[in-house]
C-alpha cells in the first residue's frame, strides 16, 4: 500500500524536525499547517514543493495515503471520514540527488463531551464553613486540551486543565472548594467545559452545566428556620379542621336561625353573630398567612412540610363543603 520509494526516518539524510518548517534543502510546505477535526469528520491538506528539482512526491498514511507521484510539485491529501483518534500523515519528496525528505502534518482528532454536570452533597451550608462542588465532564477528547471554567454570577472563580496524554475520550472531574460567606447566599454557580484547539472564538461552543443555587445559613438564618417551622406547626394545630368547622357551623346556625328568619333580631344575637363573622374572617386570613409562610419556607429551605400544610390550606374550603347542606 505504501510507496516503495519512501524511506524511514532513520535513513533520511535531510529531514526537518517533526512539525517544524523544512530546511532549505527540503523545501516542503503544507497548507493548512495543522488540522483539527472531529472523529468521523473530513479534511484535506495540500503539500507543495518549493523546488522543481524533485523526482516525485507522495503522502504516507495508513488512511488516505498516496503513492509516489512523478511530474508534480503539489499533491492533495484528503480523508472523507477520520476513523481513528491518532493520525500522523507525512508528505515526502524524492530529490534528484537521491535524498528524500518528509514533513509531518499534525492532526488533532477531538470529541465534545457527552455531558457536563454538577454534583454537590448539600446546597445548604453554614456561614464560614467550607463546601465542595464537583463538575463532571463525560467522554471528551483530547483531555490535554480540556479546560474547566468555574463561574459564580458574572465572575470566573477558577479554571483547571488536565495532564492527560490519551488521545481517546476520557471522563474528567474538577472540584471547586469554597468558604461560605453571607453574600454567597442565593448565588448561582456553574461550570463550563472548553477544548483549547481553536484561536479566539472559533470552534464549537463551550458546554456548560446547569446552575446550582447555594443557601448560606447564618445564626440569624437558623433562627428564622426554627421559628418558621414552629409557626407552621402552630398554624396547623390552632386552625385545624375541627376548630374551624365548629366556628363556621356556629356562624351558619346564627345566620340561618337568627338573622335570616322573620323573628325579631335581638341585639345580643346580632352582636354574637357579628363577633363570629369577624372571628371566622380572621381565622381564614391566618390560614392563608400560614400557607404563605409554609410555601416560602419550603421554597427557601426545601423542607418537606406539604403534608402538614395540607390540613391548614384546605381546611376552610373543606369545612364550607361540610356546612352548606346543614344550613339549607
From TrEMBL:
UniProt keyword GTP-binding present: no
One family name in Pfam for this protein: ICAM_N
Gene that encodes the chain: LOC106455897
UniProt source species: Pundamilia nyererei
TM segment ranges: 216-239, 273-295, 307-326
Keyword match Zinc-finger: no
Intracellular or extracellular location(s): Membrane
UniProt-listed GO biological process terms: cell-cell adhesion
Protein name: Intercellular adhesion molecule 1-like
GO molecular function: integrin binding
UniProtKB keywords: Cell adhesion, Disulfide bond, Glycoprotein, Immunoglobulin domain, Membrane, Repeat, Signal, Transmembrane, Transmembrane helix
Membrane topology listed for this record: Single-pass type I membrane protein
The Ig-like domain, residue ranges: 113-215
Predominant place of localization: membrane
Gene Ontology cellular component terms for the protein in this record: membrane
Amino acid at each position: 500500500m505504501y510507496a516503495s520509494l519512501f524511506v524511514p526516518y532513520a535513513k533520511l539524510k535531510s529531514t526537518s524536525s517533526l512539525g517544524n518548517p523544512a530546511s532549505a534543502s527540503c523545501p516542503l510546505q503544507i497548507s493548512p499547517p495543522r488540522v483539527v477535526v472531529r472523529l468521523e469528520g473530513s479534511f484535506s491538506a495540500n503539500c507543495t514543493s518549493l523546488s522543481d528539482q524533485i523526482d516525485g512526491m507522495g503522502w504516507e498514511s495508513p488512511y488516505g495515503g498516496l503513492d509516489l507521484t512523478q511530474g508534480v510539485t503539489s499533491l492533495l491529501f484528503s480523508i472523507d471520514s477520520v476513523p481513528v483518534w491518532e493520525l500522523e500523515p507525512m508528505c515526502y519528496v524524492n530529490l534528484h540527488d537521491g535524498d528524500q525528505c518528509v514533513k509531518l502534518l499534525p492532526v488533532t482528532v477531538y470529541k465534545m463531551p457527552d455531558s457536563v454536570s454538577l454534583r454537590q452533597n448539600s446546597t445548604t451550608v453554614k456561614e464560614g464553613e467550607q463546601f465542595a462542588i464537583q463538575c463532571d465532564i463525560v467522554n471528551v477528547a483530547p483531555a490535554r486540551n480540556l479546560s474547566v471554567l468555574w463561574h459564580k454570577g458574572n465572575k470566573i472563580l477558577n479554571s483547571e486543565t488536565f495532564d492527560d496524554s490519551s488521545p481517546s475520550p476520557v471522563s474528567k472531574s474538577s472540584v471547586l472548594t469554597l468558604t461560605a460567606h453571607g453574600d454567597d447566599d442565593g448565588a448561582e454557580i456553574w461550570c463550563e467545559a472548553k477544548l483549547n484547539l481553536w484561536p479566539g472564538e472559533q470552534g464549537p461552543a463551550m458546554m456548560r452545566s446547569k446552575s446550582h443555587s447555594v443557601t448560606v445559613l447564618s445564626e440569624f438564618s437558623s433562627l428564622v428556620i426554627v421559628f418558621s417551622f414552629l409557626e407552621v406547626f402552630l398554624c396547623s394545630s390552632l386552625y385545624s379542621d375541627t376548630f374551624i368547622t365548629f366556628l363556621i357551623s356556629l356562624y351558619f346556625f346564627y345566620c340561618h336561625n337568627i338573622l335570616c328568619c322573620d323573628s325579631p333580631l335581638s341585639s345580643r344575637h346580632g352582636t354574637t353573630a357579628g363577633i363570629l363573622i369577624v372571628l371566622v374572617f380572621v381565622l381564614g386570613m391566618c390560614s392563608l398567612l400560614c400557607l404563605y409562610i409554609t410555601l416560602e419556607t419550603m421554597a427557601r429551605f426545601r423542607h418537606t412540610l406539604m403534608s402538614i400544610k395540607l390540613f391548614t390550606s384546605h381546611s376552610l374550603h373543606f369545612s364550607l363543603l361540610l356546612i352548606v347542606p346543614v344550613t339549607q
